[in-house]
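Question (not urgent): is this output format expected?
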Amino acid sequence: MTGPVSSERSGWRFPPAFWSANVVELFERAAHYAMFISITLYLTNVVGFDDVDAAWISGFFTAGLYFLPPFTGAFADSIGFRRAILLAFALLTTGYAALGALPYKATILPALVILMVGGSFIKSIVTGTVAKTSNAETRARAFSIFYGMVNIGAFSGKSIAYPLRIELGVEYVNFFSAAMTLLALVTVFLFYRGVDVRGEGKGIRETWQAFLRVVSNVRLLALIVIVAGFWMIQQQMYATMPKYVLRTVGPGAAPEWIANVNPLVVVTCVVLITGLTKRWKAITAINVGMILMPLSALLMASAPLLERLAGPEVGIFPGITAHPVTVTLIVGIVVQGLAECFISPRYLEFFSLQAPKGEEGLYLGFGHLHSFISAILGFGISGYLLARYCPDPRTLTAEALPTAYVNAHVIWYTFAAIGLAAALALFVYSRVVAARHAGNSPGKETA
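Got this back:
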């Protein structure tokens, strides 16, 4: 068994397990995001669910991916990383292949459960591997490589999903994802060695007890629910946007490529924004992001206004035009990406400060419960809004179709209102917490 990288190693020198873990992370992210940007389209257009049912199924699938990792991470620790990651990619390959080969209502839920369990292993194992194969001197670079792989995978997966959907059909995206995870499985089998550490973390029982303590902490639970309002808007990049743009612009539109604007903005701007705000309190940076988020939804809702001002085609560059819906979605997603740059690097810092002293690490394992809540509610609400304001064209008569999407932009007003309510709630929350903290510890600042 090989321990963490020795202190002599520096620069770009890491053990083979580090590089194999990062390569399979790229494959897994490409597989996940190719499928995920297409999931509601697949459930509706191929399997036959209506917008509401497709939204709820997608929402619970996504929520499970955020809820399960602390528990599957504890299980991975008990059986060893190598066995766990082999199991994870075997499950993922099976699940993706089943989605592509068996597009039936009776088989979809079992396939998604398999994917949910398999996917929930990956992040804890790969991040654990990065930590174990680096030291204090190399860890910053190690995690920068990891996050680079995550974003390259996400970007490439969504980019490939578009031509697959157009040329072959959305169900074939799942076969691409199965191929990526099968390639990852082979890579792990051949090259992943040296970090099979067991018994160092918490057990499943301890993890469950930690979860109960988090949800019984009113201060933490309130913060989780409030921040979920931010992520409910972010979830719409997958819940609402694909169907919205295809139904309002046309079947040749590329929601997969539009969604790629987000990781492009984050990768480009997060280091700069984090550097500019490093002296800010964490809550100040988070509040800025929370204010930007409803603004992004309002920008997405402005397509009718832009069409009245510029016409049905908007010039972007010389010789290049785009539909007003496409333009406003891109602008809104740019603002979303900027909001994420303010919030994501500082949220866990602020969350940890709300935990009981000495138990910050225990509570941080559930710091992403906001995404569990936002996935269920964000996707669920999206299904009803799509059915009301941007319905499936196959459910419309020829007479109704020409005016069916006149009010489609109202969907974004709804999420702007949710985001604004969350921003105001966080402002009040921060003031209440600061006042209580000042009363308990005079002269000491909160983050």
